[in-house]
Amino acid sequence: MTESAGRLVDIAWPDLGITVTAELDGRNPELADILWDSLPYRSLQGHALVAGEHLYHHVPIPKLLHTHASEKVADRRDAPNGTVFCSALQHLGIKYGTLTEPMPAAPVGQIRAEDLPALLEAGQAVWDAVYSTKKEVLVEVRRAGTQGGHSIPRLTAAHSEADLLIQDIYNETERNWLTAPPELADMHQGWIPSRAGTHDTVLPTLLFVNGETRPLGYASYGGLIRAAVADMPMASLHQMTRILVGVPAEFLGYCGLEKLWDFTQRFLDCLDDLDRDDFLAVTSQVALYINLLGAWNLHLFPWDAKDGLRQERTAAPSAQA
Q1: 0.70 surpassed by pTM
Q2: Within this chain, do residues 113 and 181 fall inside the same structural domain, yes or no?
Q3: Domain range holding 289?
């Protein structure tokens, strides 16, 4: 048993009146330590949309983007209900029922057996909120028996322009962490200043924003951060940054995420002057912000727009022919 084993974490959904307790059980001690040291925090609670009965939320822990797991379950579908995972996508996830997506995952703990019925209740309520009602369900994660709280990490850079950029991104992230970003909220209400959306449509624009925001945060910035930690040469990092982030950020700015595009342009303007530490600070702060936008967009998106379209449980027509 490692030093991380036996520590208890309360995971609460105050609006639902539900609290469950997880034990950090010694698996992935480095990830567990990072989580423990970052408590308490609050976040918008999300729910898997294609993977099954799985809760996850965005956590304000930049180190999760690049900290390697020492132990993974080969297929999280086989993990017991109540397993708590930390993810390099900057998520804390909890399996509460049947999963359909095969995926390796890094467990850090387990919800107590007596709390599993409450966890199931929370999962079903959050699914209703994300899929249809759009009720904003917040989650609070704290050391068991302690008061809750919240803070967003503010990273620093020696380069003056980069540090000012970090401050502005931090301010925007803190302002919108627990409240829907106004640009996204306006977009989902049909207010798009650029008129993006052919023939005044809104749903295609929302779909494209979702499809660009998630990979920009998860893959592009997450990948750049992991490459920087792995000592990729700075010239290569600078080149890959220009290849990966400019075009999607410009498109998202056109669709309505103008602050993101402004931050990106300022980042690219000072990029070539950044050393490894400053590069990591800026990209980590940007990733936290973009993944925040992604989390809110997933909540706001009208997933029930075609609610009558359901999967067929028999063979597909083409297979029957």
Answers
A1: yes
A2: no
A3: 160-304
